[in-house]
Design a protein that fits this description.
By secondary structure, the protein is α/β, with parallel strands linked by helices. The chain is about 20% helix and about 15% strand. The structure holds acarbose derived pentasaccharide and calcium ion. The site of acarbose derived pentasaccharide (ARE) has 18 residues, from loops.
């Protein structure tokens, strides 16, 4: 029942992985706002261990908002710039654990040892699991191990304790004070749902939270346990869509084992899966764009586009200066996926005109029903009744596909080729609708999409 589903984030989001606050702030005004993005997911903003790897962000040393991505002032300025551009900021909240590193000085100068973080936590605030020889999670079929042992050796907070809960809630409340709209709850699977619920209950009612609970076959802890708290990332979505693209066989979604649409945040890939088991990533160029377009055309879930940087070493962080600050990159000139990228180069998906075109398409589709798709060879397409039509050809040869539609006859702008087109077909790419069908001529790897109101 929708009454029991907490309010969540809506509209199209973008994960801007390892992007400095100044860079996101600039792009909110130049790119995200104009393209119609509703929200941006940032990397974790708190103080972390030092190092060149991207994943230092996921080892908190303190909750001081001072990191390789910028200072608290820069963070606050970014949030302000984004809000002014109509873009909400969702911050990645790393609250299950602190460091795995044994001792050191954090990015902002805080000296720590594992289990002792000045002003925040001491040894009694951690689980110190004895279920495995080294205290690390070994068996994901054990609820107790997953929630009270250490995720890859990260000091596991006792999130059942009142002190830990109020300390975490204090940090999140501070971020809300800086203007963030809500949170991604990192490693939520590793905290009892009741602990996460208790922490979220200390925040203003209706604060959007998206729990990261990776759906795993045979595991006792599933995303459904967390939907009473807020939304969850539905990992099954990309696992269904991605392989269809690489196999060149698109089908109507079955959506077996998916949370209800209102609870789902969906993606093609994220910062873990592009280094792991994602079928489609930036390396796949046109197929990556096709996957994003099909996700944005869907009537299921809240979509988040992923935008990271190219890498050959999965541990490598983005370019940083001598002080360890990430230098960032500008995406203003990026119009679409590139055939190849240098290591450390931004992929810039948020700036692709086809993504902006699909956000316009999605708005035009509104709540219209997704009709069953049609296929011819590898080409596949579907209509959102009377509002918008998309077609994609993941195959290796050109194909012509007629998609039944109730759109009025006419010549429509292809928003994939040319971007947003409410003012006419900017680049001249068009699709004909006549006799109740939209006829798409698609090259191998091509996606095309048309919507009501954009004719040329
Ligand atoms: C790094 C090194 C490790 C080292 C560790 C401690 O890579 O080799 O042991 O530091 O020194 C990120 C990186 C990690 C990194 C960590 C800390 O991905 O590589 O470790 O930061 O710096 C599980 C969790 C899920 C988690 C994934 C990665 O359930 O929550 O593992 N994802 C989030 C973030 C990550 C982040 C963390 C959590 C930690 O998105 O980026 O780690 O804050 C099955 C299960 C899944 C499981 C998955 C992988 O699919 O169903 O639940 O995901 O296997 O084990
Ligand atoms: Ca835990």
């Amino acid at each position: 029942e929708s009454a029991s589903i907490p309010a969540g984030i809506t509209g199209v989001g973008v994960e801007m992985f390892q992007r400095p606050w100044t860079s996101i702030g600039t792009e909110c005004g130049s790119t995200l706002g104009p393209a119609g993005f509703s929200w941006v997911l940032t990397s974790p903003p708190q103080e972390h261990i030092t190092g060149t790897q991207w994943w230092t962000s996921y080892q908190p040393v303190s909750y001081t908002v001072d990191s390789k991505l910028g200072t608290e002032q820069q963070f606050a300025d970014m949030v302000k710039a984004c809000r002014a551009a109509g873009v909400k900021v969702i911050a990645d909240a790393v609250i299950n654990h602190m460091t795995a590193q044994g001792a050191g000085t954090g990015f902002a100068g805080t000296a720590f040892t594992k289990y002792a973080y000045p002003g925040l936590y001491g040894p009694k605030d951690f689980h110190h699991c004895t279920l495995t020889p080294d205290g690390s999670i070994q068996d994901y079929t054990s609820r107790a191990q997953v929630q009270t042992c250490e995720l890859v050796g990260l000091a596991d907070l006792d999130t059942a304790s009142a002190h830990v809960r109020t300390t975490i809630a204090g940090y999140l409340t501070h971020l809300l004070g800086l203007g963030v709209a809500g949170f991604r709850i990192d490693a939520a699977k590793h905290m009892a749902a009741e602990d996460v619920a208790a922490i979220v209950a200390m925040l203003p009612k209706g604060t959007p939270v998206i729990s990261e609970v990776i759906r795993g076959a045979e595991e006792p802890i599933q995303p459904e346990e967390y939907t009473r708290i807020g939304q969850v990332f539905e990992f099954a979505y990309a696992r269904e869509l991605g392989p269809q693209l690489t196999a060149g066989v698109l089908m109507d979604p079955a959506r077996a084992d998916h949370v209800p649409s209102a609870s789902a945040v969906v993606f093609v890939d994220n910062h873990d899966t592009e280094r792991g088991d994602a079928a489609v990533t930036y390396r796949d160029g046109p197929l990556d764009l096709m996957a994003d377009a099909l996700m944005l055309a869907d009537d299921y879930g809240t979509p988040v586009v992923y935008s990271g940087y190219a890498f050959s070493d999965p541990d490598a962080g983005p370019p940083q200066d001598a002080s360890g600050h990430v230098t960032g990159w500008e995406c203003a000139g990026a119009t679409g996926p590139k055939a190849s990228y240098a290591d450390g180069e931004g992929v810039c998906a948020e700036a692709w005109k086809s993504i902006a075109g699909m956000i316009e398409w999605r708005d035009a589709a509104g709540a219209a029903e997704r009709r069953p798709g049609v296929s011819k060879g590898a080409a596949y397409g579907f209509e959102r009744t009377g509002r918008a039509v998309i077609a994609a050809n993941p195959g290796s040869s050109p194909a012509t596909l007629a998609v039944p539609t109730t759109l009025p006859a006419g010549t429509y702008c292809d928003v994939i080729a040319d971007g947003p087109s409410m003012d006419g077909c900017a680049g001249g790419a068009t699709v004909r609708v006549s006799d109740g069908a939209a006829t798409f001529d698609l090259d191998a790897g091509q996606t095309a999409a048309i919507h009501l109101g954009a004719t040329g």
